[in-house]
Amino acid sequence: MHRQSADACGHRIRPARLGAFARLACLAPPVALALVCASAPARAETISGALARAYENSPDLNAQRANTRAIDENVPKAMAGYRPTVTYNQSLGYQYTNEQLPGASHASSAGAFPRTEQLQVTENLYNGNRTVNGVRQADSQIDAAREQLRLTELTLLDNAATFYMNVLRDTAILDLDRNNVRVLRQQLKFTTDQFQVGEVTRTDVANAQAALATGQATAFQAQSNLENSIANYRQYVGVEPHDLQPARPLESLVPHSLEAAIADAMSNHPSIQMALHNADVAQYAVKEAEGALLPTLGVTGSVTKENDPQGVPNESLFSGAVMANLTVPLYDGGVTYADIRQAKEQYGQARLQVDLARDQVRAQLVSAWGVWQNARAVIQAQRAAVRAAAIALTGTREEAKVGQRTTLDVLNAQQALLNARVNLVSAQRDRVVGSYSVLAAIGRLSAGELGLHVVRYDPTVHFSQVKDKWFGVDTPDGR
Fold first, then answer.
1. Average pLDDT of 222-243?
2. Contacts 24+ apart (CB under 8 A), 35-41
3. Inter-CA distances, 243 with 163, 249, 345, 383, Å
4. Could you state, in order of their start, the residue ranges of all structural domains in the chain?
5. Is 104's pLDDT higher than 70?
6. Between residues 204 and 362, which one has the greater pLDDT?
7. Which helix (H) or strand (E) element contains residue 123?
8. Cβ atoms 234, 25 nearer than 8 A
């Protein structure tokens, strides 16, 4: 049975399939959200299915894939330094001459169409190893881009999992709050009836009215929270949530200890790997800048054909040449030296960014690990709290019937039970989300690690298609 949430805020939304769980929570101690295994309807969505949708349809991830493909082109651009450049030049015009020779009675005039064609081939032989270092720099840029792609993927999957569980949690809390409003309405009616026969005071009625109003406000806030979670889910997954099924934590994929997780993260997290590759890029930039101080050697071959040169009709001239060109830089006003010093400082900055990335990854992992471990402990405590609060509410109601408890005592017991159940639902959500966050902080939250049923994107395919291309303006996919 699926209930629309229009009665609370006026908007039609499809909450996740947790109504049965929430109603069970109001009647008996709830089972762990992560471990509920109900029979899934045909259109039910699992967390794996939602993550697969996000992986295949995310504009952010697809944009990063396009950026990685664009950076792949840096290698053929750098490789151009090894290849010759060929140019063809042609000039065509009309030239008119009128010549008056000394002693001649008449001037001579002529018109010609001078045309020049030249084919020139230039090959670099040595340029201070700038081409070598440029190619290495481009390779490191590609490695950094692939790590950025991996970081984008794990961030996307982490966010999608978080909002999947947020929808489940907020749906359960909304159902709990609505059930609480129904109970408080019954309590207000019961208290009003007692007041009419003189068994309780007007204060008891006011307490019941205040509790109902507070419960209704809480339900409205719970629906607002659910709508926000649904909007975020739609942003990352690409579709509206429908019949979301409970999810299990990824505890089987998490290392057995925090120390092992940290060691894994230090060697695997894409932020750290990307910073290392960026440091390599900066190091090759230093070498490339230093190459500007070294001589360059190249060879140029040219073939030239001229028709009607100097305006002489019917005359042609053909020439060919091969020239070696040696350029030795002596002094350029200090620009090259400034470039080298600047590149060295940027390299130093890049190395410091590696240390910063390690510190940030470690902090994120320790924080995620703490949230995950805390959630596991809180679940056990909140289960006990729910059981105790349920017993206390039952006893308080029985005692109130014989005048040993006031209406306020019953309302407080009801609120305590509601709070315990909400806290339990939140802790169950935190346990699942925490396990995903830990795996993301290690750097291993990926479609492959999760076994998602998707066609995995391989960035090396495009690189292999373009790295050796000499000609062509079409991309490998035909654009």
1. 93
2. 35/246, 35/248, 36/246, 37/246, 38/245, 38/246, 40/243, 40/245, 41/17, 41/243
3. 14, 19, 55, 26
4. 6-72+129-293+342-466
5. no
6. 362
7. strand 115-126
8. no
* Span 443-447, average pLDDT: 92
- The yes-or-no verdict on residue 6 having pLDDT over 50 is no
Residue type, position 183, single letter = V
Rounded to whole angstroms, what are the CA distances from 361 to 146, 370, 374, 375, 430?
Answer: 18, 14, 20, 21, 20
| Spatial contact of 3 and 223, defined as CB atoms under 8 Å apart | no
The number of residues making up the chain comes to 479
Say what the pLDDT of residue 26 is: 36
CA-to-CA separations, 477 to 58, 465, 474, in angstroms, rounded: 20, 10, 8
- What is the C-alpha separation between 447 and 211, in angstroms, rounded? 47
What does DSSP say about strands 115-126 and 85-92: parallel, antiparallel, or unpaired? antiparallel
Q: Looking at 127-136, 159-168, 197-206, which range is the least confident one? A: 197-206
Q: Is the pLDDT of residue 401 over 90?
A: no
CATH number of 6-72+129-293+342-466: 1.20.1600.10
Alpha carbons 302 and 113: distance in angstroms, whole number:
23
> Strand (E) positions, 231-337?
296-307, 316-327
Token duo for residue 112: 């010609």
pLDDT higher than 60, residue 42: no
CA 114 to chain centre: 62
Q: For the residues 467-473, what does the mean pLDDT come to? A: 83
Tell me how far apart the alpha carbons of residues 205 and 191 are, in angstroms, rounded to a whole number.
6
Q: And the tokens for 130?
A: 């700038």
Higher pLDDT pick, 400 / 145: 145
Cα distances (Å, whole numbers) of residue 213 to 209, 216, 323, 393, 413: 6, 5, 93, 20, 17
The percent of residues in the chain predicted with pLDDT above 90, rounded, is 60
| 19-27 and 407-442 helices, crossing angle to 10° | 140
The confidence score (pLDDT) of residue 93 equals 82
pLDDT at site 1: 33
Do 138 and 73 form a contact (C-beta atoms < 8 A)? no
- Specify the 3-state DSSP secondary structure of 241: coil
CB atoms within 10 A of CB 97: 14
